[in-house]
Amino acid sequence: MLVHSAPRTRDGIFPSELHMARRQVDWLDYYEHHSRQHGRLTPEDLGRLRPDWREHETWACGPAAAALLDTAEDHRGREGFASVSMRSASGSRRSGRRSSTPTPAAG
Q: Residue ranges of the domains in the chain?
């Protein structure tokens, strides 16, 4: 599953390539999330798109990645699933423990 979150449709990156991948890659479930209309992406949003998302590796990148990671880690504690392992596009890894330094993220 790939969820692309941007403020508006026109703010997304690589729209042609992502839409082509959605048509050509059978196993790819692609979703767009527009934060100006729906607010920031949350773990609850992911659960509505794919209830078993916690069972899969999760990656996050972009300017808001650190906030999403913190929210996911808080959610992990409440829901009791084993771990959250996410990386920013720069390769920084966060796994199940909140860091005191923000995760660098590439836009």
A: 1-39, 42-107
Question: What is the rounded distance in angstroms from the CA atom of residue 5 to the CA atom of residue 77?
Answer: 24
Report the C-alpha gap between 33 and 22 in whole angstroms: 15
Give, for 76, the enclosing helix (H) or strand (E): helix 65-79
Neighbours of 18 (CB within 10 A): 15
Two structure tokens written together for 4 = 């692309």
Instruction: Provide mean pLDDT across the span 3-17.
Output: 88
- Angle CA(8)–CA(13)–CA(14) in degrees, nearest 5? 130
Count of C-beta atoms within a 10 Å radius of residue 88: 20
Query: Mean pLDDT of all residues in the chain?
Result: 73
Q: What is the pLDDT of residues 51-67, one digit of tens each?
A: 988 888 777 766 666 66
Q: Do the Cβ atoms of 7 and 36 come closer than 8 Å?
A: yes
Q: How many Å apart are CA 69 and CA 59, to the nearest integer?
A: 9
